[in-house]
Each structure stands twice: as C-alpha cells, then as structure tokens.
Amino acid sequence: MKKQFVALVVLFFCSTVTFASDDSAILETVERSARAWLELTDTGRYKESWSDASPQFKAQQSEADWTKTIQSIRLPQGTMEVRYIAAAGYAKTPSGFSDGDYITLKFYTTFSKSGLASEDVTLEKLTDDTWLVAEYEIN
Predict the structure, then answer these.
(1) Looking at the chain, which runs of residues are DSSP E strands?
(2) Greater model confidence, 16 or 42
(3) I need a labelling partner for 59 at 20 to 30 A (CA). Which of 10, 48, 50, 77 fits?
(4) DSSP category for residue 123
C-alpha cells in the first residue's frame, strides 16, 4: 500500500511538472510570435503586420484601414526603446471574438517621444497550432 501511494505521488508530481513545462513552452511561443509582429509595427512595416495577423484581425479591417490607423497611433509615439512583458492571460472565446483559444500579453513599452505606454496584444491559436495576432491596443 505504501509503495502504491509513493508511486501515485511521484506520478502526480511528474504530470504537474510536465503540464507546467508545456504551459511555459506555449507562453514562450506566443511571446515570440507577438514580439515578431510588434517588430513589424516598430519598424513601420504596417502592411506586413496586417499580412502576418490572424484571419479574424484581417476581417475586422482592410489593409488600408489598418495602415492608416496604426500610422496615426504609432508615429506620434516615436521609436520603440524598451519593451517588457508584464502579464499574460488565457481566455477561451473572449467577448467580441469567435470561438477559440486566445492569449493576451500586456507589455510596458517606452517610446522616444511619448514615454511609457501599455500595449495589449491578443493572439489567436489557429488550427495548425500557430499563434497570430488577433487584436492590438496601445494606451
């Protein structure tokens, strides 16, 4: 009986560690994807950022509308100096989105003209397990 209990405890501990490790790997993948997309906006490659976004993002606005909107938001900020991830949150179908898996990352970013800003990047998991930007907000 004691051996069975020890085996169950070890099995539980191993499965917990594996789960935590999987979550960490997913978060790293999502953060890498978000930072790559943000680099496109940081360097003024707005058309590419629209092209590299999720189908849901593209359905909300045309490439021309996105380019106009992001230019009006980002150009006054100046160049990006430093970006730190502050928080991450998972949601299954947040309000305003279609059914799916989403992770929102909050970044604190310093810009040369405007100083500190908060950026929220929501990424959507696609059927091929890639994560693409579904929404971007800056405050």
Answers:
(1) 80-92, 101-111, 115-125, 131-138
(2) 42
(3) 77
(4) E
